[in-house]
Specification:
alpha/beta, 2 domains, Spore Coat Polysaccharide Biosynthesis Protein SpsA, Chain A, single chain, 41% helix, 22% strand
């Protein structure tokens, strides 16, 4: 089987990183980690697993550090994971059987997202395909947005078994991430030099959140996931007005 490198970035992930690295045992031959100067035991745990580690700054757009990890990988293939993700045994076997296709340079992997005590099955959250496995030298992140996908040169294909994603162990953690992501979103609006006027105010305060909520909760049947589905649709729709108001506030300073 071709050699696979794991590329991973971390910042204060002591609660997650061991579980993630345990899930790729027997699949990857090296772990390449770029840590954003964690203040907990993340780096210590990475060392226990024999990781190649670079400790650096923790930029707001963490895809910058992901590209640093990708660039340091030596395997024929690169598997890029977040610390709060797990490769199931079924996915591990599927990856091992899929790397002998010479015409394919990258694979989209479905992802199950855990939220408020359950894996979301609707609301556009499953299958949440993400491009995480690609030949070395053929894939890279544009590093323009935290929600972007990798760009892979050449043909890509789809795997069937999912990654398991545990981003928010509790709702307070979700709110902390919400604050971070809306800060990043506001910075993106600043970089775009978005005009602040009646049209953009109406768009971000009323139209975009309404369309998002109706699309995820009604059109994509988020209501099948009960309260968790409602909470996801509602709070994720709020990122538009919150980010816009942060951008507006910063523009006045």
């Amino acid at each position: 089987m071709p050699k696979i490198s794991l590329a991973i970035t971390t910042f204060n992930e002591e609660e997650n990183i061991g579980r993630c690295l345990d899930s790729v045992k027997g699949l990857v031959f090296e772990i390449v980690a770029v840590d954003g100067s964690s203040t907990d035991k993340t780096v210590e745990i990475l060392k226990r697993y024999g990781s190649k580690i670079e400790v650096t700054a923790n930029p707001l757009n963490f895809h910058i550090n992901k590209n640093k990890a990708i660039a340091k990988c030596q395997g024929e293939w690169i598997l890029q994971l977040d610390a709060d993700e797990i490769v199931t045994l079924e996915l591990k076997k599927e990856i091992q059987l899929s790397l002998n296709r010479p015409s394919v340079n990258g694979y989209w992997i479905p992802r199950k997202n855990y939220f408020l005590g359950r894996f979301l099955s609707k609301g556009g959250q499953y299958p949440d395909y993400t491009l995480r496995l690609y030949r070395r030298g053929k894939g890279r992140l544009p590093a323009k947005s935290v929600h972007e996908q990798a760009v892979v040169e050449g043909k890509t294909a789809f795997l069937h078994n999912p990654l398991l994603h545990y981003p928010y162990p509790d709702f307070s953690q979700y709110l902390r991430h919400f604050t971070l992501y809306t800060d990043i979103f506001a910075k993106e609006l600043q970089d775009q030099k978005l005009s602040i006027n009646v049209i953009t105010f109406t768009d971000f305060i009323f139209l975009k959140p309404s369309v998002w909520f109706l699309s995820t909760f009604i059109r994509h049947k988020g209501f099948y996931d009960g309260f968790a589905g409602f909470a996801f649709s509602f709070f994720s729709s709020l990122r538009f007005p919150v980010a816009f108001l942060k951008y507006w506030k910063d523009s006045k300073q």
